[in-house]
Amino acid sequence: MERTLVLLKPDAVQRGLIGSIIKRLEDRGLRIVAAKFMKVSQDLAEQHYAVHKGKSFYTGLIEYIIASPVLAMVWEGPAAIAAVRQTMGATRPTEASPGSVRHDYGLEVGRNLTHASDGPETAIQEVALWFSDNELVDWQRDFDRWVFETVDD
Q1: Which helix (H) or strand (E) holds 3?
Q2: Closest C-alpha to 75, from 87, 91, 89, 64
Q3: Less Cβ around it within 10 Å: N or C end of the chain?
Q4: CA pair distance 36, 101, nearest whole angstrom
């Protein structure tokens, strides 16, 4: 099973979209294995967005992510990274596919509601940055055999 980090950013939280976005991921068949509602520290924000340090939008990105609570989550399933990114839509909401979270709820790239890991290596690093091993819950749903072709026992 592949795991990926999903952040519901301050704009998603402030607009009351948490339930709607989680429902889309659950409806897709993905399984949640960790979640925490939190204020992001300056240090965590800088670590998470370190790849963007020195870019013109870096300071605004840090200020935005620490301005209000986020919901940090880990989701899993076959091809979870691709499935989550497809569900969220393109980074720029005006370029996102109809039916995606960003298309349906977003207008500007600076308020694009969510973050999702962009690849397997990034997902491993991001999950470890935001969650300790004991915060990740391994579990099986009764209906997983009807969603996943292969179910781990």
Answers
A1: strand 2-8
A2: 87
A3: C
A4: 20
**Considering the entire predicted model, what is its pTM?**
0.94
Q: Is 115 a catalytic residue?
A: yes
Domains of the chain: 2-133 (3.30.70.141)
Contact 128, 3 (CB under 8 A): no
Per-residue pLDDT tens digits for 71-106: 999 999 999 999 999 999 999 999 999 999 999 999
Contact call for residues 39 and 86 (beta carbons, < 8 A): no
Q: Which of 48, 52, 103, 115 is catalytic?
A: 115
Q: How is the beta sheet containing 2-8 ordered, strand by strand?
A: 31-38, 70-77, 2-8, 114-116
- Interatomic CA distance for residues 126 and 43, integer angstroms: 14
Residue indicated by tokens 């889309």: 24
Helix (H, G, I), strand (E, B) or coil at 24: helix
Angstrom CA distances, 124 to 38, 40, 55, 119, 138, stand at: 20, 19, 24, 9, 16
pLDDT digits (tens, 9 = 90+) for 107-152: 999 999 999 999 999 999 999 999 999 999 999 999 999 999 886 6
